[in-house]
Amino acid sequence: MKARAKKPPQSMDDAQYAGLAGFRRALRQLMADSERICGAAGLTTQRFQALLAIRAAADGSMSIGALAEELVLRHHSAVELVGRLELAGLVQRQSDPQDKRRVIVSLTRQGAARLDELAREHAKGLSENRDIIIASLTALPETD
Amino acid sequence: MKARAKKPPQSMDDAQYAGLAGFRRALRQLMADSERICGAAGLTTQRFQALLAIRAAADGSMSIGALAEELVLRHHSAVELVGRLELAGLVQRQSDPQDKRRVIVSLTRQGAARLDELAREHAKGLSENRDIIIASLTALPETD
DNA sequence: TATCTTGCATCGTGGTACGATATAAAAATA
DNA sequence: TATTTTTATATCGTACCACGATGCAAGATA
C-alpha cells in the first residue's frame, strides 16, 4: 500500500484545471462555429455529422445500425435522425436485398450538394483553428 | 479573376471527406467518454463544463453573464443551467455588492468535491486520447 | 416448426436551449 | 434631477433531440 492518503488521491491544482477548462473551451468554440455554419444552412450538427458519416462510408451508404454505431447513438435514435433527414429530402432509405431486416441509407443528390457546401466551410475553419486545438491539448498538464 | 469554375469551387474528394469524418468521429468518441463519466456521477456534460469553468475562473467565481459567454450560451440559458446546478446543491448564487444587477456564482463544497472527482477522470482519459485527436487533426488534408 | 437473435420502428418522457418578454439596476443624457 | 437607454438576470412557452420501453419482422438455430 502507498503511504499517501487514499480517498482524495490528491486534488487537481489550478494549472490542471486551467488546462482542462482551456481544452473544453476550445472544443466549445469549435462546435459553436460548426453550429453556426450548419444553422445557416438549416441543419443541426448531428444531421451534418450523419450526412458526413454516410458520405465517408465505404460505398457512400450505411445501414442504420452502422450509422448508430458511428455516431455513438442507440439504434432507435439513429432511426429518428434518419427519419428527419429523409423528411428533409437529404437521404433515402432502401431495403437491403441481402438482409431484408437492414435498411440502407444513402445521400440524395440534394443531400450530397448540401453536405459538400458545409464540408468545405468546415474544412476551411478547421485548417484555421487546428493549431489552437492542438495547442490546448498539448498544454494539458500530465495527471500522474 | 481565376479561370476555374466559380459556383462549385471544386468539390471535396474522398480523402478530404475521410479526414473530416475521422476528426468528427474522434470528437464524438471523446464526448461520449465524457458523457459516460459524467452520467455515472449523475451529471450532464454541460453541468460539468459549467462547474469546470467556474472553478477555473480567476477567483473561483463568475457572473452568470460571464459564464454564458464562456459556455457560448445565451444569458437566459446560463440562468437556467445555474438554476439546475443550484437546485442540485453544486453551486450558490450571491448578489454582487458592486453591481446589484449581477449574480455571482461559486461552487459549494459539494460542487467542488464532485468536480474534482470528475476532473481527475477526465484528465486521465484525455491523456490517453489526445494523441488520437491530434493525429486526426494533422491528418486533415489541406483544402486549398 | 419453435425459439432465439438481430435490425428497424413507434411511443411517451425528460432534459436543454432558444425566442419573446419582463423586471430591476446602472449608466447616459436631457 | 428626471428621463431614457443599456445592461444583467429571470420567467414562460416552444421545439428539438436522445433515451427507455416496447413492438414487429426477418434471419439464424435447434
Helix and strand arrangement:
The structure is a homodimer of 144-residue chains.
Chain A: H1 14-40, H2 45-56, E1 61-63, H3 64-71, H4 75-87, E2 91-95, E3 103-107, H5 109-138
Antiparallel strand pairs in A: 1-3, 2-3
Helix pairs in contact in A: 1-5, 2-5, 3-4
The structure holds a DNA duplex (30 and 30 nucleotides).
Helix content of chain A: 55-70%
Mean pLDDT of chain A: 89
Q: Quick one: CATH superfamily of chain A?
A: Winged helix-like DNA-binding domain superfamily/Winged helix DNA-binding domain
The overall number of domains of chain A is: 1
Give the percentage of residues in beta strands of chain A. Answer: 5-15%
Strand order of the largest sheet of chain A: 1-3-2
**Element pattern of chain A in H and E:** HHEHHEEH
Please tell me the CATH architecture of chain A by its name. Answer: Orthogonal Bundle
Tally of DSSP helical segments of chain A = 5
**Oligomer kind:** homodimer
CATH topology category name of chain A? Arc Repressor Mutant, subunit A
Radius of gyration of chain A, in Å, reads: 20 Å
Structural class category of chain A: mainly alpha
Q: How many β-strand stretches of chain A?
A: 3
Distance between the termini of chain A: 17 Å
Largest interface: A-B, 44 and 43 residues
The main β sheet of chain A shows up as: 3 strands, antiparallel
Q: Tell the overall outline of chain A.
A: elongated
**Name of the top-level CATH class of chain A:** Mainly Alpha
